[in-house]
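As agreed, record passed on underneath.
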Amino acid sequence: MLTAEVTPSIHVDYKHSKIKQHHKLERAIRTETTINDTRDFAIGKRLRNLPALRQVGFQANRRLLATQRLGHDPIASARLLEQVAEPVTIGDTGVAGLRFGDRRAMALLSLLAVFRPSVRGFTNRDLRSHLAPLLGLLPGAMTAGKATYDLRRLRTHGLIYRIAHTNRYLPTEDGLRAAIVLTQTHTRLLRPALAAATDPLADFPRLQRALDNVQTAPDDYANRQGLAA
């Protein structure tokens, strides 16, 4: 809760230790970690343990700052999403983006995690053999030309790179992260949520009640205000 003319602060407690974060002189964020009992971290109280204790405090501060940076950097996340989903023009040629929810795009993204453990990378044929079943096709039904087009899309959007002097590819680090987030969001969050929203028998009672409230709350308010038709 924010109060007028009161400098906001963040407090994180762990057993007998805590982290306090506040504005110093209203200009910079100050992060203070206080460890009141070294045994909270299985460290003794002798002075010789001071370096280990310092390392614990340093790691706690860095983890908090890293979490805040990831949670408050919408520009970077928006840029990566645009990099994946928006079409790209190279010269006079346009390369389609991988739209979130598109069946072929989601299948391609899911394969990046499959190919990541490979040291030698994957080929056009590897892509076809894995992609065809995900699209409901027989392994031999997908042509090399279609797979080449998909490889070009993945490369153009920075999701894979070609291993030098070979016809093999590997996912980039950004490509792998984006693929995991997008496919997991689509498979484990969006699809079940839509199922709960449209199927009264779906096993998501809390979500179903919340969706029902969203629909009925405006009607109830209108009735109380005498605005109902």
Summary: The chain is about 50% helix and 15% strand. The first strand starts at residue 9 and ends at 14. The chain has a mean pLDDT of 83. The two ends are 39 Å apart (CA to CA).
